[in-house]
Amino acid sequence: MLTVKYWSSLLAVVLCAFCVVAQDDVTAEGTGQGSNREEALINAKRAAIEKGIGMILLSQTEVENFMIKRDQIVTKTIGSVKSFDVLSETKDAGGYIEIKIKAVLSKSSMRSDLAAFHILLESMDKPKVMVLITESNVGNDEPSNSSAETAIIGFLKDPYEFDLVDPQVAASIRSSREKMAQVAGNPAEAASIGAKYGAEVVITGSAVSRKADGMTAALGGMVSVQADITLRAVNCTNGSIIGTADGHAAKVHISPNTAGNQALAKAATTAAGKLLDNIMKSWQNQLNNGVGLTVSVKNVSAFRQKKDIIATLQGIAGVSAIRERSWDAQSQILEIDVQYKGNADGFAEKADGLKLKAGGGSLAVSGIEGQRVSINAQVM
Questions:
Q1: Which residue from 92, 227, 347, 368 could staple onto 209, CB 3.0 to 4.6 Å apart?
Q2: How far is 243 from 277, CA to CA, in rounded Å?
Q3: Residue of 19 and 49 predicted with greater confidence
Q4: Residue 266 and residue 303 in one domain
């Protein structure tokens, strides 16, 4: 059995191997396998990060438990893949792809490192984002108000190059006050609307601007307007809240309406920057620890069959956790959450045609929508 002293020595060697690299960067090689090229690359990047993890281990306890706490340690890293070169790429007889890369890992903020951020977007298959903001500008709360929404979209497009749902779609939704009220008060409703238009993240919120009383004379007839905005990012797959943020700004102009629009845009950009940090942290965690998939299995008529299906899916390589959400014999539908180190397509490749561990039968994938996977249980 390998001792704590051995692992400590090994990590010390890793640290020395990296000492010739620039202070903010480390290099490491990583090899990953997957059912498709994207999944193999994700796993190769994770492996490279894991090799460089010795640079930022947080405690002696983590060193001592490195082998059994590997995933926990990886998720704590502040490193990210800044750039990489593919050293080799092969495909075995079963169709599985293996990719070996040499990666440069940046310890600096990913948000300030656009190269790393763009690689993160690519690794996440460029998730599409929808923006829906309710806006009131100096007492005018017409649904057509969109200064804050436009500023957020501009922030996400340049320089981050997000894939965004057409703003015209958002405008049509904003025209319904009832619909916007539902979106604002219910993350599940926001997720449902976002998913309908192909979004994987929907950003909702409210923005308000008001005139600052008693300031006009001191400003030589100009008007001061202050704006506040609150934002929320929702995962469209499961309706969970990724993060929240707020922003405040003030602008002066001879026109209250113009000052309000300018203040709203500035406050929105500030809040969007904060929210982006939460979104990036969530995506980086998915790359390190696996994505959350919502899996629906039909034709599950018996308790014993349900247990067999869960046990079978737990045996898939890359599945780190499964949580049962609901099941009843009448609907014959089993809903589960799966944590999987890869992507939805890779999980589906492994699950499709999989023989159940007991009782006979197999699984057949019937659909994939974002991070939702539908499966039919086939009984022999």
A1: 227
A2: 9
A3: 49
A4: no
- Quote the number of domains for the chain: 3
Alpha carbons 138 and 233: distance in angstroms, whole number: 26
User: What CATH number is attached to the domain comprising 359?
Assistant: 3.30.70
Instruction: Take residue 77 and report the two structure tokens written for it.
Output: 């890293």
The amino acid at 221: G
Cα–Cα distance, 169 to 146 (Å, whole number): 13
Q: Does the pTM exceed 0.70?
A: no
Residue 210 and residue 253 in one domain: yes
- Last-in-domain residue among 230, 254, 286: 286
| Secondary structure class of 205 (helix, strand, coil) | strand
Residue 197 has a pLDDT of 92
- CA–CA–CA angle 52, 66, 120 (5° rounding): 40
Parallel/antiparallel/unpaired status of strands 128-137 and 163-164: parallel
Owning domain of residue 330: 290-378
User: CA 56, CA 249: separation in Å to the nearest integer?
Assistant: 37
The 8-class DSSP code of residue 140 comes to B
For residues 323 and 337, the answer to whether their CB atoms sit within 8 Å is yes
